Amino acid sequence: MKTSIPIKEISVPKAAPSNAQSEAVRQMGVCNACRYCEGLCAVFPAMELRRQLTGPDVDYLANLCHSCGACHFDCQYAQPHEFAIEIPAVMANLREETYARHVWPGALAPVFERNGIWIASITAISVALFLVGFIVFTDASVLFASGSEEGAFYRVMPHNAMAGLFGAVFLYSIVAICLGVRSFWHSTGSQGSVSWRSLWQASKNAATLRYLDGGGMGCMHESEEPSNRKRIAHHFTFYGFLLCLASTTSGTLMHYVFGVQAPYPWWSPTVVLGTIGGIGLIIGPVGLLRVKREQIDALKAKPSRGMDVAFLYMLIATSVTGLLLLVLRATPAMGLLLAVHLGVVFALFISMPYGKFVHGLYRYAALMRHAHEQAQHKA
Ligand code: SF4
Ligand code: SF4
After folding, report:
1. What CATH number has the domain spanning 109-370?
2. Is the CB of 65 under 6 A from ligand 2?
3. Most buried of the four, 3, 157, 180, 251, by CB within 10 Å?
4. What is d(CA 358, CA 66) in angstroms, rounded to the nearest whole number?
5. Which ligand does the CA of 27 lie closest to?
6. For the chain, what are the domain ranges?
């Protein structure tokens, strides 16, 4: 029985390296001669397997980097040394560039420049459209509707319209993200097969954020004092998001399998999972925003595109409006809150392929490639 996942070989047109890629190749060339940081994370062992680095190689290495900052504080060639080695900043910049390079459709690549402004505009327009849509397709009184009894939400927006709209936009986003990640994956020059063992290793590394630990002592964002704040906040965000996804899935099952309509009672799996996930999706992003605010300049992507911050605020807005809707659904604020919450969720879904959300998938692909290469190297 075959126990590996075949990787299709495709020819990738060779493009001239960007400035960010050329700079990463230069700096990694110094690292490859120095090798002082090889025990810190996956980036340096992956680099050492390559005699010569190309643009796609450094794209791959950039997505392996978890921005822990450890190599900056360890580096004897960081500024003011003339080599001016700034690995975390170079990798952060290149990662954001990679998302634009592989985005589908390619015409939307400019959205990654000034990403924060784009995401904020999309959210504002989406919320406004839901408010106007509720009034146009029903009437203004729905904005002051209340009710926690079964089917109350669907008097404001019919279930079929809600399911059709959100199902379509979610499906579009998943397809767009998959096409982007597929392009990135092939650009790394994949050959051979990825074994289930490598897949399992990559999944473990992703689920535990193994490389967000500065080589074991914690991240160094603000100073040489290591801390696990970023890793913990990231875990809250990631698992909070998964719980919210589980809540939505359970709501779908309640509706289609058990014939029970939203809003659901407090004790239902949909509400319990959504509440715990929603709280995690506030604690995590707030913690990450704090870490980001205190991060030293040498670790930041240059230029700043506002991508991280926009995504974190979007997650917070999704959770806060969802939890407010839960608490105030029996009051006349329900209609308005439902419009705002749906507007924010719609903006989150539609912007998923065009913002920071994609980093998880690109990183997972890079971790998979790394696990595969290390297994081959040891064989
Ligand atoms: S980051 Fe600096 S110390 Fe670390 S391997 Fe590169 S050149 Fe050497
Ligand atoms: S910032 Fe951390 S994860 Fe990134 S290359 Fe440096 S040590 Fe590795």
Report:
1. 1.20.950
2. yes
3. 180
4. 14
5. 1
6. 16-104, 109-370
